Amino acid sequence: MHQAEVVVIGAGMAGLSLARDLMKSGIDVLCIDKSRGTGGRLASKRVMNEAFGVLAFDLGASSFQATNHSFKNFLVEAGDKVHRLSNGEYVAASRSSALTRELATGIRLECGQRITRIEYLEDQAEYPWKTFIQNNGEECLFSQSTYLVLATPPEQAYALVPQDHPYKSAFDYVETLPQWVSVFYVADDTFNTLGLDQVHAVNTPESSVIKRVSLESVKADRTPPEHGQGVLVKVEAQPMWSKARTDYDKEDIAQALWRALWEIKPVLKNEVGLDILDQPLYCYTHRWLYSLPQQNVLSRAGQVKGLNHLGPQENLCLCGDYLGMGRGLHGVEAAYLSGTSLAMALIQTRQGLSQKSDVSKNQGANNQGMGNKGMGNKGMGNKGMGNQ
Length: 388
Ligand SMILES: Cc1cc2nc3c(=O)[nH]c(=O)nc-3n(C[C@H](O)[C@H](O)[C@H](O)COP(=O)(O)OP(=O)(O)OC[C@H]3O[C@@H](n4cnc5c(N)ncnc54)[C@H](O)[C@@H]3O)c2cc1C
What we know:
Elements: E1 2-9, H1 13-24, E2 29-33, E3 44-49, E4 53-58, H2 69-77, E5 82-84, E6 90-92, H3 98-104, E7 108-111, E8 117-120, E9 129-135, E10 138-150, H4 154-160, H5 167-170, E11 176-187, E12 200-203, E13 210-215, E14 230-237, H6 239-243, H7 250-263, H8 265-272, E15 282-293, H9 297-300, E16 309-310, E17 316-318, H10 331-387
Parallel strand pairs: 1-2, 1-10, 2-7, 10-17
Antiparallel strand pairs: 3-4, 5-6, 8-9, 9-10, 11-14, 11-15, 12-13, 13-14, 16-17
Helix pairs in contact: 1-3, 1-10
């Protein structure tokens, strides 16, 4: 069983930017994630294919924006892990999760642990928050903490929040849309002429099926396929199209996305010079059940104005990309800023609490002195009496 002042559920961009700032301030923090590694929606995949060797690609965000100076500073500090594209977007190398691995340095991390329940023990002064996991069909206590942070998509936070908690109804305002993603390895003799700028190949807002196409194999430091010469083309489906097909078979989705890619072949040829042939050599398909948040749940519910929420009574806090939407931020940047703003709020709260306890200690000390002063007060009482 683990113990920390702050336990963070979720080691994506939001959870880890929060944990990093808390750790830097000397706060004991533990970050837990159900996946094998960090990154969340910045996750990448590395597969060993018999015919083509190692294929590595991002399944989540391939590139992202930075408008806020503190996020830009973080990207600058990440050095050669981050590259700026000519369209102003940024891309992490050799994969997007390089960003979360950077943030995770030195942080107490427990991966591969799915929290199934949380509980607040009101009458327990020390470490009132408990998290639980399932182990061989049995529920086990996994951690206890003073503060608990849910740094997950809102639907996953909803599943954990206790039934009668006010967050529960606030979450009614949010929907995180699903998204299918297929990565095709295609033969193409332009493979060695493409540059990093072609990562972000095309946006296709007019297509009802495809949202965006990126070229994964052009990312810096990517291991080139050992055999064969081709390009990894990542196709992100439109969220509404994905929503209507959430339970489809991966193979059916891959075929539909390939057909849709084939239809925009002229656009690809025109924009990046990519001339795909009639069949992919390899395909990997993934469903993100929660990909793109649609509403800033808590600000709409009138409960919070900021990028995070620090629960006033029970120290149950929220952060994540969805909280940035009301501020015109989105995606990776929103997640980062939500985490760092919650860190600041928590640090200030702790400082406030320790100042309060210093004040009350002083008051205690003064009160002892005031015992004497109190005597003087008696004199004031006398004055009062004199006033009568
Ligand atoms: C296909 C795709 C394309 C995208 N494209 C872009 C883009 O172009 N630009 C952009 O800015 N953004 C993009 N995004 C969005 C961006 O990736 C996310 O906004 C950002 O990574 C969210 O970070 P987060 O920390 O808020 O949440 P997440 O990354 O979702 O992290 C939450 C973590 O919580 C963990 N978790 C959940 N429940 C539990 C539990 N019960 N126990 C333990 N762990 C749990 C999850 O495993 C996950 O690691 C894209 C996302 C996807 C999927």
